[in-house]
Q: What sequence folds into this?
């Protein structure tokens, strides 16, 4: 029997809601049947927040030195930081940021070495971490760099919709100046490949949003749609990718057109994340597509105002763990199917085509 998927979970900011949502999620009896979890962080912090959560005091933990020592029927913990750091729920601190960064580095190293199959990251404070690691702008960019990739896709996923963004954590004032057709085409390609490989969709349909109000109104409100976005879509179409648009974002989401496509590509962060969070916040997952490794994260922040109060909703973290396991399984299936096709030759027909979500 093949081993269960091993999923590393980083603690995030020790003063945010990371540990609370991790503990609540791992208390779900189904988790240990589906995967082997390894928490990268602090057994002391885990114990501290387990008392805060209260009803989950009896969950079985196993402190290990390396991922290779994990126990399949326990919640494994790798201590990445010393036990003398201060835990102060609700208060951003340099210690909390450094602990988050150390856990992220340790889990990333194991992910790249193949010691874990996927990584789920609890939220951290980007500004605080950037003081410890100058240039840090987020998990997505950190992992793209760690994997040695030239690009990646921030992909927001729920059971009803998927939204990706062309530009990630970037000031809005810089977006129009940096966008170009090749950048947009690259994101369309990444999204299309991810939908096939990670989500088991044979012929994905992708909607591409415009940049300007009303998609520029034929050039009246900006010409990026005519000059940059439409040519990228046309090029994708010439490559056999089913990409459509550009669509005006306000009309697109207000008329629920997102449900007619397998995924939507927005031009910038808030254009995609505001409607996604408004419609799918309780189950939203942030997935970094286009990498050789699997990483997911709950689509929320540190929520300092909730830390230590036992109010945090674990569903986004639980959804992140489930999605990570699903993508690992789908990638294995995709790889196996490709190997089978190479052995028997091309197969005609498209009876297995899955429609839009």
A:
């Amino acid at each position: 029997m093949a081993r269960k998927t091993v999923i590393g979970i980083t603690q995030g900011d020790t003063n945010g809601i990371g540990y609370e949502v991790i503990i609540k999620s791992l208390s779900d009896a189904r988790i240990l049947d589906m995967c082997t979890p390894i928490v990268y962080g602090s057994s002391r912090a885990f114990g501290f927040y387990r008392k805060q959560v209260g009803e989950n005091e009896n969950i079985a933990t196993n402190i290990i030195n390396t991922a290779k020592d994990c126990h399949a029927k326990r919640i494994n913990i790798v201590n990445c930081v010393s036990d003398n750091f201060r835990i102060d729920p609700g208060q951003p601190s340099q210690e909390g940021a450094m602990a988050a960064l150390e856990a992220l580095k340790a889990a990333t190293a194991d992910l790249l070495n193949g010691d874990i199959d996927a990584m789920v990251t609890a939220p951290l404070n980007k500004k605080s971490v950037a003081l410890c690691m100058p240039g840090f702008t987020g998990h997505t960019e950190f992992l793209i760099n760690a994997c040695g990739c030239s690009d990646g896709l921030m992909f927001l996923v729920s059971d009803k919709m998927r939204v990706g963004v062309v530009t990630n954590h970037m000031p809005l004032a810089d977006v129009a100046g940096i966008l170009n057709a090749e950048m947009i085409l690259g994101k369309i390609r990444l999204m299309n490949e991810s939908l096939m490989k990670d989500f088991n969709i044979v012929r994905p349909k992708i909607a591409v949003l415009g940049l300007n109000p009303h998609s520029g109104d034929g050039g009246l409100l900006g010409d990026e749609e005519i000059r940059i976005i439409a040519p990228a879509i046309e090029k994708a179409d010439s490559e056999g990718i089913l990409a459509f648009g550009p669509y005006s974002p306000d009309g697109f989401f207000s008329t629920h057109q997102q449900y007619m496509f397998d995924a939507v590509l927005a031009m910038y962060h808030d254009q995609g994340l505001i409607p996604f969070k408004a419609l799918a916040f309780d189950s939203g997952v942030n997935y970094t597509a286009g990498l050789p490794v699997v990483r997911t994260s709950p689509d929320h922040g540190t929520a300092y105002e909730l830390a230590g109060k036992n109010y945090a909703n674990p569903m986004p973290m639980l959804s992140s763990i489930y999605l990570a396991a699903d993508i690992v399984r789908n990638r294995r299936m995709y790889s196996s199917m490709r190997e089978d096709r190479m052995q028997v030759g091309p197969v005609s027909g498209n009876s297995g085509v899955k429609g839009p979500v």
Summary: Residues 347-357 have pLDDT under 50 and may be disordered. The first strand starts at residue 5 and ends at 10.
